[in-house]
Amino acid sequence: MERTNAIHEGKAKIIYATTDPNQVIMYFKDEATARNGEKRGTIQDKGIINNKISTYFFKLLKDRGIPNHYLGTPEPRDMLVKKIEMIPLEVVVRNIFAGSLAARFGKEEGTPLSMPIVEFYFKCDELNDPLINRYHAIALNIARLDELNEIEHLAFSINAILKEILNAKNVDLVDFKTEFGRDENGKIMLGDEISPDNCRFWDKDSKRKLDKDVFRHDLGSPEEAYQEMLRRLTE
Ligand code: UDP
Questions:
Q1: N or C, fewer C-beta in 10 Å, the chain?
Q2: Is the CB of residue 149 below 6 angstroms from any atom belonging to ligand 1?
Q3: Degrees (nearest 5) of the Cα angle 151, 157, 158?
Q4: pLDDT tens-digit map of 76-89
């Protein structure tokens, strides 16, 4: 599969067309941003690590029946994926209070939620990705009700699978962000990536952060945190 022209460049990845119109390549960059691009930096080899971690999770999710765009990992920074029509929603699942949820409700980071919750954010840099509900998503023609139901169902299933796997690696899944798209038949599929860039992973015992919060809040070496997460998953 030959990579051709770049069709989209985001903060952490570049999407390339390929010689097959139904397949694209996601190229994982080392650049890291936080607070919608306010803080910028580089995490050495992040692209390679995130591609490996995402490959691990997407293969596992496919085996467990979660439809997703993963097709292969031809190069250390390249993931070959099915071309799908992305829905501009950031779908966040949370198990433990942290980040913006802890701030919004005045809760201490680390307080468990009594049940997992899902949130929708409208993916729009100019508006700073506002938190929205189902009515907004439907009225703004972002997604239909049946699609939102399917997305929620998949998001909770993904949460259950990831929690089970991470439990065995002595890692708490605090929260994570996913994105979904539609295939050529309108079927909802998981897209994007699952990596320390968009999940909160904490060591179960020490509560040490093994994710992008290390970069966001200057808590030490993000390289070490990302490497440690990869080691836990693959050893
Ligand atoms: N997240 C993300 N991209 C964003 C915002 C959040 O991947 O643009 C992830 C983040 O890594 C965390 C979860 O979504 O795992 C919930 O993030 P939160 O709303 O707490 O926002 P933050 O505190 O990261 O700004």
A1: C
A2: no
A3: 85
A4: 999 999 999 999 99
Render pLDDT for 139-196 as a digit per residue (tens, 0 to 9). Answer: 999 999 999 999 999 999 999 999 999 999 999 999 999 999 999 999 999 999 999 9
Q: Which atom of ligand 1 is nearest to the CA of 200?
A: 15
Distance of CA 179 from the midpoint of ligand 1 (Å): 12
Atom of ligand 1 nearest to the CA of 174: 15
> Does the beta carbon of 129 sit less than 6 angstroms from any atom of ligand 1?
yes
Which residue has tokens 């020490």? 206
Measured in Å, residue 187 CA sits from the centre of ligand 1 at 26
Atom of ligand 1 nearest to the CA of 119: 19
CA distance 90 to 177: 6
Residue 2 C-alpha to ligand 1 middle, in angstroms? 33
* Ligand 1 centre distance from Cα of residue 176 (Å): 7
Is 143:87 a contact under the CB 8 Å cutoff?
yes
| Mean pLDDT across 36-41 | 93
Full-model pTM: 0.97
Q: Tell me, what's the pLDDT at 1?
A: 73
